[in-house]
Amino acid sequence: MAETLFGSEFDLEALLQRALAPVDPPENLSKHLEQTLTSIADLAEQELESWELSAMRDPKNWIPGITRPVAAAAIGGVAGAALVVLQVRGRLRAAQR
Amino acid sequence: MDKATLDREFSDLYRAHLKDVYSYAYYRVGNHHDAEDLTEQTFLQAYRHFERAVAESDGRPLRPWLIRIAHNLAANLYRDRSRKPQTPIDDTQHLRTVHTTEDLVEGRDELARILEGVQQLPDDRREALIMRFALGMDNREIARAMGRTDGATKVLIHRAIKQLEQIVQTQGAAA
């Protein structure tokens, strides 16, 4: 695109390229922004960890979603078996006396 | 994607595009103070929504998404303050900080007139030119950033250049 302007040939797109040259961000902005993003990321991680700890105290959160009933049945089964073993041992001890 | 990987990818995005976001913000708002605020808010918002953006991007570059965030925040900034840029770009200061001595010797007046002309364009045309010339974005990227079709973006840029040409010629004739 060559036009006569300011008394000379000029290319508007080339001038735009120079007029709108990329601008370097100030150094303090880069540092400040990196610190802010790092602290937000750390905070999010800490929050996640503390949520995980508190969630672990509640058995409802041990195994999420659809596996929960299966896990409950499995845990119940193990507990039931343990109870039977204890009862058998108790009867054996009583018989020994 | 686990959090460590996500943070690493965000860090890469930040390093790759900090200058783009700052350049866009600077030419959009016209001063360094607001440009710094806008850049900071853009990256904070981007961090909050990064996981979803990555999932929805299908591997496409995220620069248009970043610039779209900056564009929306800039629009909010003007709406909240009910004003246009407080001050137009200070041509003298801008030319001194952004351009080389050689540039200035060669065509300071021309560059100042171009910048002045860009400031007079309607918002969407000005933004399209900033994205094209300051950030080097292609039509497709600009279309994604502005929420337009590729065809509409091509027309927008063409009209922006034509209008700028007229503005600059009028200025030249008046000078």
UniProtKB/TrEMBL annotation, chain A:
Keywords: Membrane, Transmembrane, Transmembrane helix. The keyword Transmembrane helix applies. The chain crosses the membrane at residues 66-88. This is DUF3618 domain-containing protein. It comes from Paraconexibacter sp. AEG42_29.
Automatic annotation (TrEMBL), chain B:
It holds the Pfam family Sigma70_r2. It comes from the Bacteria. Keywords: Sigma factor, Transcription, Transcription regulation. Residues 113-164 form the RNA polymerase sigma factor 70 region 4 type domain. GO terms for molecular function: DNA binding; sigma factor activity. GO terms for biological process: DNA-templated transcription initiation. Residues 13-83 form the RNA polymerase sigma-70 region domain. Belongs to the sigma-70 factor family. ECF subfamily. This is ECF RNA polymerase sigma factor SigM.
